[in-house]
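Async update (no meeting this week)

Hi team, since we skipped the sync, here's where things stand on the single-chain job. The sequence we agreed to prioritize is pasted below, unchanged from the tracker. I ran it this morning and attached the output directly underneath so nobody has to dig for it. Comments welcome in thread, and please keep replies under the output.
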Amino acid sequence: MPTDAEYESMIQQFDNWKKLTGFLGKIQKGDTPGWAAGKAFEYLVLQAFNLDGGAVRWPYPVEIENEVVEQIDGFVHIGWFSCVVESKHTGKAVAIAPLAKMRNQLMRRHSGAIGLVFSFSGFTNAAVILARYIAPQAILLWTGREIEQALDDNKMLEHLEYKYRTCVETGIPDASIQKLGTPTPPPTP
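Output:
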């Protein structure tokens, strides 16, 4: 199995939006030889932010008193704006456990940090409801369809800004981006 440094090197070959979109197609088909389960999607998300000008911290463990206490899928910094990233590539909609994990990770960090949870297969209704009541931590939810849209648009950061502003203004952490026009928040489940 490759190391984190080797995965980082592997994702760097997808150095433009077209190549990264092609890699997403391979992930969707399950055609990612050399990548452990879930790793291809995890690194694709970070590379998308990297291509759009975000400062990316690739996956890393957090050690306290010589013990690994967290495994972080990644961090994205845009100026003074910082986001903890969690990515899930599963066949089922993501339930509440990754959101609870993200909440705990955010509680140990500066209150200005937000969480981004990416789920290839979307989220259960329970997860969406929980995300709406996690305050004061903000956890923004991204579906696989939204990742595809952001890659097509070449605009990870613009869509992140939209999702963040919508969450701050309305308390809706799962505002959807649409194929055409201005993104609009989803209806309440």
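Quick observations from my side:
The longest strand covers residues 81-88.
Residues 6 and 13 are 12 Å apart (CA to CA).
Reply here if anything looks off.
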